[in-house]
Amino acid sequence: MNSKFTSHLASLAVAALSGLLLMTACEKEKEDTVNIPEGALRISAESTHGSNGSKTTVNGTAVYWTTDDAINVNGTTATVVVGEDAAYLTGIDNSDAMYAGFPAGIISVSGSNITINIPSSYSYDEREGRQKLDLPMVAYAEANSTELQFKHVCAAIQVNVNNAYNGADFFLEKITVSSNSHPLCGTVTVSPNPLGVSHIPTYSASTASVTMNFDDVEVSVAANGSKSIQIPVLLTLGSSTISVDIEGHYANGADFGSGRVDAAAKIVYHNSSATLLERAKVYPAPCTIRVSGSPAITKTYPKFSISGSEKVYFSRGNLQYTASSDTWQFASSQTEIRGTANNNISESYSSPIDLFGWGTSGNDGTGATAYLPYSSSLTNSEYIVGGSASNDLTYNDNIADWGSNSISNTHGTWRSLSSAEWNYLLHSRSASTVNGTSNARFVKATVSSKHGVIIFPDSFTLPSISVSLSNINSASANYTTNNISSSDWALLERAGCVFLPTAGLRKGTSTSWAAERGYYWTSTHDSDSKAHCINFTPTALSIPYSGQRSHGMAVRLVQDAN
Fold first, then answer.
1. What does the pLDDT look like over 331-386, one tens digit per residue?
2. In angstroms, rounded to a whole number, what is the distance separating the alpha carbons of residues 439 and 452?
3. Is 538 exposed, middle or buried (0-12, 13-18, 19+ CB in 10 A)?
4. Are residues 479 and 443 in contact, defined by beta-carbon separation less than 8 angstroms?
């Protein structure tokens, strides 16, 4: 029997989204000349991404007209025709001003007012491998107009589901998003005149939820893969807390305990003063997982203090880059390193590397000569960003920081920690007591035969493992003091621990010390030839440590949690 669970993402603090309910964007999906029948009424929508015949896209999810779409125009339902280069309606009387809404099944029109009954439940629809998302829209056109141009009334909650288990696909059954203080669905009345929305509704309900069902379709998240699901919701007016519940099962009766599914959510929407992704909001949060017949398992996104007031989340593994496809990703596990595979570093190498020269984000605007991720030059001056050795990776809006890139198997905005932040994390922050050691921050260990450093989150309860951790906070301890099995590590990781493996050091095209030493870049410069990094060996842990800018080191990124 397939194991079924519910994962719960709680306390997603949604920022205030001020302004009008209708969302505009940066460019219109519109050709100067289109081929439609005489007398037909063209339909279009504003979007940040253009494509013929489509409504819009939301962060890569297709939202396009199809021939089974229906639009309510002045109280009359008309069916969309998708032409070669435009979508249009026929048989519409345009002699009077036109008030229209989509989709017709949830729209009623009375004079200049359009009422939209935004559903509390949806059935998942996928066309040509992409989710078909019908975000409610309204349009106004003056008499004798030949086009209806729609604008969105809703935003979308994007739920990113990650399946970190390599043994089986994960099948979605239901996703529910809820708000503690503002409705996400219900009745909205607007008047889409040329000036925008003239009425913002009020609600008596204090909570609301919207569900996406997968009863009639088979939607899976591949092993070691991820999938994004969009769910239409009302814009959140003011501050709100959003939670997300995910139900599903593994294929072939696989036990959930053998793997891991987690998720995060963000609100995506159009705004006239910014592009789509510039205004996307991302919120990782605690996740409660219930396995059939088993006690609840709580999985959290743990926080780590990097100063007296700032906290971060860590990425799921070290950063990797594949040159042949120009793609970034995080390692599939915290213990994964590429080792001597980094010797093959080149523009055409088709496997991942994970040791990089300082500031090699791949963005040409860094001002460095060696800015590409596959740079292997040993000339340190080529890795200076912005023409000055005193520039950190924060130079010019973090353009030299690897976190400025889109990372394929994750969500959100990532960055490198500074030398001071790493130092505070490892040596100064307040943390939990572990095995009698107060403010337990780190411990050197061997995890599944990989040497490295375990970092404890601020709030941590030691699970029941077979090893009694010793030499906590000791920089001089040897890795072999604490030998952690893969099963014990699964418990420590579930409790929130981060592991930095000894990924080694690359000089040009030669990698060494992958089983003995760890070198991790910070965002902080040191001199004209060096930058700060973390260095740990069998007898030491040093931060800050000065490393040659040209040397290839590991990168572990973080996401701000405040």
1. 888 999 999 999 999 999 999 999 999 999 999 999 999 999 999 999 999 999 99
2. 20
3. middle
4. no
Amino acid making up residue 325: S
The β-bridge partners of 208 are: 179
Cα(348)–Cα(295) distance, rounded to whole angstroms? Answer: 48
Tell me the three state secondary structure of residue 383: helix
Q: Which residues sit opposite 328 in a β-bridge?
A: 321, 407
State the Cα–Cα distance between residues 389 and 412, nearest whole angstrom.
29
pTM: 0.56
Which pair of structure tokens corresponds to residue 403? Answer: 């976190």
Cα 379 vs. chain centroid, distance in angstroms? 35
Distance CA 91, CA 76 (A): 10
Q: Which residues contact 562 (CB under 8 A, 6 or more apart)?
A: 309, 310, 311
Pull the structure tokens for residue 440. Answer: 């337990």
User: What residues does 156 pair with on adjacent strands?
Assistant: 232, 268
- Candidates 132, 141, 154, 133; CA nearest to 109 is 141
Residue 122 in tokens:
């949806």
Q: Are strands 208-213 and 121-123 parallel, antiparallel or unpaired?
A: parallel
Per-residue pLDDT tens digits for 492-549 = 987 889 999 999 999 999 999 998 999 999 999 999 999 999 999 999 999 999 999 9
Q: Which of 451, 414, 494, 257 is nearest to 335 (CA)?
A: 451
**Positive or negative: CA dihedral 60, 61, 64, 67:** positive
CB burial of residue 43 (10 Å; 0-12, 13-18, 19+): buried
